[in-house]
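COMPLEX REQUEST
Ligand: flavin-adenine dinucleotide
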Amino acid sequence: MSAHMSHGATFDVLIVGGGLVGSSLACALDASPLRIGLVEASAPAIERPPSFDERNLALNRLSLDALHALGVLAQLDTPPAPIRGVHVSSAGDFGRVRLRAEEHGVDAFGGVVIARELGLALERRLVGCVNLARRAPARVVSAQVQTDSVAVELDSGECLHTRLLVIAEGTDSPLRAQLGLGELRKDYGQTLFVSVVQPDRPHAGVAYERFTVDGPVACLPLAGGRIGSVLTVPTAQAESVLGLNDAGYLELLQQRFGWRLGRLRAVGRRSAYPMRLVTAERTVGSRCVVVGNAAQTLHPIGAQGFNLGLRDALCLASLLRAQLALDPGDPGRLSEYADQRADDRARTIDFSDGLAGLFCHRSFPVRLLRGLGLAALDHFADLARPLVRGAMGLNPRALEQLDQLRRPA
Ligand SMILES: Cc1cc2nc3c(=O)[nH]c(=O)nc-3n(C[C@H](O)[C@H](O)[C@H](O)COP(=O)(O)OP(=O)(O)OC[C@H]3O[C@@H](n4cnc5c(N)ncnc54)[C@H](O)[C@@H]3O)c2cc1C
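STATUS: Structure written out below.
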């Protein structure tokens, strides 16, 4: 810690990173008497945090219910576009899966929101939080674990103390390494392009995922008949795709996605993202816990990243609120958090990683099995049911935590 540092506030829980997950956690803890701090590197009113961009987020039912309970959905300018059906196909294979929400007893599997709009809604909600002290723009530069607290230094020179430090810094989290939580990295060698596209035909609320040997393509339903398109290309081709004009890009997207939605006409601004899997080796340490993308950054093709990060936030909020008298950084509670998250986390990481890899295989036996798998799922609703429940986020523990969130602290 530097000599010029001033001594600032003391918190029960200090969240570092006010992205989608850190902000959601702050909202989830708002109803508790705990003193909460939130430090975010970007300024709230002027710039947006980096992840509040044009990416389309497919949110499952649990996430929508949780954001509703947290008072965030009410702050959205445009309500989420419902996902009433899912269509999964693989170029060159015979099988495909078509799932319809009504066949699974729900009106929608989830909804699609633009990350920038969700960011704005969270910002509006954070302004109304009562027990929350915010520092933004401010960056945490170091953290030192002491016996009863963690001393945190900001780039302004201010020093904060907290009994529990929540690391929600996103993929390249420096604190994760500084506090010894370790990380594993895998580069998929793919770059993902995201843009809003206007197709000829109505999407009817169907989310399309099409797997090709060059990587997956997805089209998510948006309001106003538009679709949120996601195109993956091998990183070696990314430069040339970046150089395409709108017409050239639309032609490539059309060729990879096909004609299910007719001609793809206009395309908006395109953003590119390198695809990698980054996971923390441990999710908890002494007086610290890592959540959201800082704990696990997934390939977005499974549309699981924020959904999973929000479940991290729900679980942590629920454990903290269950025993308010206990030290928030109590090691027993932190290991309970790690235990409760382990299974969901491992399964979701494996699911996304498997999805990113499986459909790249060109070999005949793999393609045959894949085709058979897709065809079976399409024909036997019972086989698809667990998959659908999982994709909607409906596991019993998460539902319990959501229930608890709805009750006053
Ligand atoms: C193209 C694309 C499509 C996606 N689609 C989906 C989808 O359909 N469904 C889904 O569930 N997920 C999706 N995701 C994943 C989702 O966007 C992420 O999981 C989510 O944004 C993670 O939120 P986070 O708060 O953990 O991290 P981030 O959003 O990265 O936020 C981290 C924040 O921490 C701040 N910060 C970092 N270091 C410091 C510091 N030292 N001090 C202060 N502040 C700091 C940063 O400024 C930033 O605001 C997609 C991702 C991409 C790239």
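REMARKS: The pocket of flavin-adenine dinucleotide is lined by residues 16-22, 39-42, 49-51, 55, 57-58, 115, 139-140, 168-170, 192, 194, 273, 292-294, 300, 303-307, 309 (CB under 6 Å). Residues 323 and 333 are 9 Å apart (CA to CA).
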